[in-house]
Design goal:
Layout lengths: L1 E3 L6 H18 L6 H14 L7 E7 L11 H9 L3 E2 L10 H9 L7 E7 L3 E3 L6 E2 L8 E2 L4
Parallel strand pairs: 1-5, 2-3, 2-4
Antiparallel strand pairs: 6-7
Length: 148
């Protein structure tokens, strides 16, 4: 989930806005979780199968929109955990690396190792709860969060 907006100095107002935003996100996407929570759950499941950062390569096919690399977003968290990320494409979340790209990716897998891939589209929300809108740093007006 991407949240944007000028946080200003009025903490109560910002809390009110964020509370309403979280309600909007939960109404639109029941069960939505912060990136860190998703990563913790995924890593716990992978650990059950002996899949860890020491014996795996991480690849992602998420939209290359720069907001996906903001702190707290799953692709950024996973890349930080694994120490790297192999890009597989991603407009709309679909991998477009093709046969050659996946072949290159497969040559980077540790011996007898594993592949972990995160893929999917994303959506941003303005601080007012507008789905698909995002206020980027340095911009005065909202713009689309994933125009793909």
């Amino acid at each position: 989930m991407c949240i944007s907006g000028d946080q200003g100095s009025d903490t109560g107002f910002v809390f009110y806005k964020i509370s309403n935003l979280i309600q909007t996100v939960n109404a639109s996407f029941p069960g939505a979780m912060p990136g860190q929570h998703v990563m913790d759950k995924a890593l716990a499941q992978l650990d059950k199968y002996g899949i860890g950062k020491e014996n795996s390569i991480f690849g992602q096919s998420c939209c290359p929109d720069e907001i996906n690399s903001d702190a707290g977003h799953l692709p950024k968290l996973m890349a930080t955990y694994y120490g790297h990320s192999f890009p597989l494409g991603g407009l709309g979340g679909a991998p477009f690396a093709g046969k050659t790209g996946f072949g290159a990716f497969s040559h980077h897998v540790p011996d007898n190792g594993h592949v972990v891939i995160v893929f999917g589209p994303h959506i941003g929300f303005s601080i007012d709860g507008d789905a698909g809108a995002f206020l980027r740093t340095g911009q005065a007006a909202l713009s689309t969060a994933c125009g793909a």
